[in-house]
Specification:
Blueprint: H1 2-33, H2 37-63, H3 77-107, H4 115-142, H5 145-172, H6 177-205, H7 212-223, E1 228-239, E2 242-251, H8 257-274, E3 278-287, E4 293-294, H9 296-302
């Protein structure tokens, strides 16, 4: 299943790239011919997704490079950087759409768009629903921030296309300004997505920890061992699709240092088996009364950290 997901994760960005490229040309052409500001704005949004998807393809490929002396922790942050660049692009596109739509609204709209714009927007809704579904599936299975970022953009496209459908429908039955209002709504939706999700990508670049629920699962796994009486700390940090874990556990004071190393090795192996996205686990231990302590360096020498 994991290998299947990896293959799917490599295919999804290319599928999204092709889908958004076709959608961009289709929406821009129909929007221009049908004189629909909303559909043109949605087409520009799809065009921005093409650029963002190219960023995803490049950063995912970069993040898969093996560790080297210059980057001993790997290239995982390249995905978070790609996600941040994608959301910054969305924010810039949002500003451009808003300026154009407000200008059209202030100048006065006298002609409604053609019905063809409405059907083109419906096609965009269905296409983006399919693309976002594939993206979320692959992104969550692989724990990839770049793929999830791309899927969020397609979902944002789908929601904006729905808004465009409503705006065009109202404009064709006599409320002419609603086409431009739909474009403004699209701009605000894109801008909000760019700001909120961009801040999340920035958090990942600043060595943010794993979500609370995953940290709790890791802690519960450790505390299941009867030899472990507690944990002084459990720190996690995310690097793209992978995560690092650092912890200090409290063991039974009756245990020897040698037994403490064995317990730490067993816990490390259990965590690596259960949580497929954990790249490395570093464990130090201390006894309940603080009579014995093994540092991270000692654990490495003992073979616990590999």
């Amino acid at each position: 299943m994991q290998e299947k997901c990896i293959k799917c994760g490599k295919m999804v960005p290319w599928m999204v790239l092709c889908g958004n490229s076709v959608l961009t040309l289709f929406q821009l052409y129909v929007g221009y011919v049908a004189k629909s500001k909303g559909l043109v704005a949605d087409g520009i949004h799809s065009g921005a997704d093409v650029v963002c998807t190219l960023m995803v393809i490049i950063t995912v490929a970069l993040s898969e490079r093996k560790n080297d002396k210059a980057h001993p922790w790997g290239y995982g942050k390249a995905e978070s950087l790609g996600a941040l660049m994608a959301y910054m692009t969305l924010l810039a596109i949002a500003c451009m759409i808003l300026v154009d739509a407000f200008a059209a609204l202030l100048s006065g709209v006298t002609h409604p768009p053609h019905w063809a714009a409405f059907f083109a927007a419906l096609v965009a809704v269905m296409a983006n629903f399919i693309l976002s579904g594939y993206g979320f599936c692959a992104g969550k299975k692989l724990n990839s921030p770049a793929l999830i970022a791309n899927a969020n953009e397609n979902r944002s496209d789908m929601l904006s296309s729905i808004a465009v459908c409503v705006g065009i429908l109202l404009a064709t039955i006599g409320f002419h300004m609603f086409d431009a209002l739909a474009a403004i709504m699209v701009g605000f939706m894109i801008g909000k997505s760019g700001i909120v999700l961009g801040l999340q990508a920035l958090k990942q670049l600043m060595d943010g920890s794993l979500p609370i629920e995953k940290n709790k699962l890791i802690e519960n796994t450790v505390l299941r061992y009867k030899e472990v009486k507690g944990a002084n700390y459990i720190y996690t940090r995310r690097m793209g699709q992978q995560a690092w874990v650092d912890m200090e556990i409290i063991i039974d004071p009756k245990r020897t240092v040698k037994e403490g190393h064995a317990i730490a090795r067993e816990i490390r192996q259990a965590l690596m088996r259960r949580f497929k996205h954990i790249r490395e686990v570093t464990i130090s231990f201390t006894c309940k009364e603080n009579l014995m302590h093994a540092s991270t360096g000692e654990m490495a020498n003992a073979g616990t950290r590999v």
